[in-house]
Design brief:
Two copies of one chain form a homodimer.
Chain A (H helix, E strand, L loop, with lengths): L1 H32 L1 H10 L2 H4 L2 H11 L1 H18 L3 H45 L9
């Protein structure tokens, strides 16, 4: 039940994010074919407005229907191209990030404990020097 | 090339979002098993802090190592459970959202044009009344 809710919410976030990426793609394309329109779309697409992809598209439809339709087509295309790689990339990415975070933490902990025990180290090593293993052959 | 960049950026956003969902899950679990700790984690996990999942986990590791490890385990589990449904849910979701947005826009356009042409409608219908089809049998 919880997984179902999280899957639904994640889907919503993904759709909004791919809408944002579609807007960026169209702005880049317009930068090469129609600079003034690209500039207009850039100014229209404030981060505040683009937060909610659907509301953004509804606003844009009022102002420039053709651009809104174009962004809708691009986001559909992006979804088809990008999502198939996501399951593996996200799972691997999280596993990798977890390992790196654990390693960094372990390094920090080791440095802290090394610094803290520096004062005692000489005594320990002094004892260690006497503690030669008995099972090493004399020759 | 562009698709590869977008896939990478989307993966990063997804990982951060699943970290947020893992935090919510752990806060909910603690609400039933250890309310004071749940309250502490809730206060620690400000939206500003949680924006960057990795930075958040590094901060939490300094404050409460056990909770950080737990959240890392939960986000790994969530990724495995949730991502397999995402490609279909996102593609279908975007197609559905596009259709609904187009329909709403069409409805608005029709209402606007209906309102604008209301004045002319009576004349058009008056002409229509005379324009009876010739191929309807008399009986």
């Amino acid at each position: 039940m919880e997984i179902k809710r999280i899957a639904k919410e994640t889907t919503k976030v993904m759709i909004s994010y791919l809408t944002y990426q579609a807007v960026r793609t169209v702005i880049n394309q317009l930068g090469e074919t129609n600079k003034p329109l690209g500039f207009w779309l850039h100014n229209f697409s404030t981060s505040e407005r683009i937060k909610d992809g659907e509301a953004y598209l509804n606003d844009l439809l009022e102002e420039h229907q053709e651009l809104a339709f174009r962004i809708m087509t691009v986001r559909e295309h992006l979804a088809e191209e990008v999502t198939e790689y996501l399951p593996e990339m996200v799972c691997t990415g999280i596993k990798q990030a977890n390992i790196e975070t654990r390693c960094r933490h372990l390094e920090r902990m080791t440095q802290v404990s090394t610094a803290a025990s520096d004062a005692n180290d000489s005594e320990i090593f002094a004892e260690d020097e006497d503690d030669t293993p008995d099972d090493i052959p004399a020759e």
